Amino acid sequence: MAPDSSNARSMTLTPIAPSMGAVVSGLDLSVPLSEAQAAGIRKALQDHHLLCFRGLEMSAEEQVAFSRQIGALEVFPEEDKTKDENVVYNVANVSPDGEHMAIDDHRVTYQLVNARWHTDSSYRYIPSYCSIMLGIEVLPEDAKGGETEFSNMLMAYDALSPEMKARLEPLFMVHYYEYGRRLYPQLPPVSHHERVHVPPTCHPLVRVHPDRDNARSLFITVNAGNEISGMSLEDGQALHAELQEHISRPEFRYSHRWQAGDLVIWDNRVVLHRAAAYDMGKYRRVFRRTTVAGDGPVLGPFSQAIQG
């Protein structure tokens, strides 16, 4: 299908917060984008780290089609976590058939793992590029919680002391998918399928971005591990806790209060996110997520590609 004439308009960006983000208008996502428009979205994401489209109604098929215009999609390793197909993940306390699940349902418990700072797919050798999430059922305006909070890791790295930057430069963090079971032992054990597809991996704590003139960011997660390679367990966990406090500083953050029909795209390479707590037994909350795959492993200060 050729791009629709309704997409001839220019994309307009309205900044959201000092730390990151822009609201996008002027594009009709219900029709195919031109390559120039898809490239414009990727450029806007590079500049603003987070983009929000408002007032959309998208089927799963339409969201997948749009997402594939941004890049190739990851296949999720989970076998049964309220998802419809292997490139679509439902971040929800509602089952695919519309049941508001009990708070002790393991599929709801699994959502609690998302309440800790993380970047999607950090447990992969090649983590993701960006996530694309549609708000389908959101909390009412007077309800507390339910936002998605984001933290800018470029800003977080820049704010570190010279001594801490030097300390972190050679270090790696261990990321593993199974870590959620340590946080919530009541979750079912990781299946053989999941264990085979996402074994533990290590990434540098300091991420270098060649597409940003070798700018540096922190690369850390709180829901996929707390161990630092090359340090004792106790010292590594203490450093991890210190960094967790640092990345939570308000000047790095943006809190997104969802409206139904919001489509939010964020750059997992430079942004962490977490779900704010809410009354999961009282309120239904349904989001549909697709994830665009990364194009290579995380590069650190001593990676051969950086050292030249």
Helices and strands, with pairings:
Elements: E1 12-15, E2 22-25, H1 35-48, E3 50-53, H2 60-70, E4 89-92, H3 106-113, E5 130-137, E6 148-152, H4 153-158, H5 162-168, E7 172-175, H6 179-183, H7 192-197, E8 201-204, E9 206-209, E10 215-218, E11 227-229, H8 233-247, E12 253-256, E13 263-267, E14 271-275, E15 286-292, H9 304-307
Parallel strand pairs: 2-3
Antiparallel strand pairs: 1-2, 3-13, 4-15, 5-13, 5-15, 6-12, 6-14, 7-8, 7-11, 9-10
Describe the structure.
There is one protein chain. With 308 residues, this protein is of the alpha+beta class. The protein has one domain (5-307): Clavaminate synthase-like (Double-stranded beta-helix). It has helices at 35-48, 60-70, 106-113, 153-158, 162-168, 179-183, 192-197, 233-247, 304-307, and strands at residues 12-15, 22-25, 50-53, 89-92, 130-137, 148-152, 172-175, 201-204, 206-209, 215-218, 227-229, 253-256, 263-267, 271-275, 286-292. The relative contact order is 0.23. Residues 1-6 have low confidence and may be disordered.
Sum up the structure in keywords.
308 residues, alpha+beta, Double-stranded beta-helix, seven-stranded mixed beta sheet, three-stranded antiparallel beta sheet, 9 helices, 15 strands, 25% helix, globular
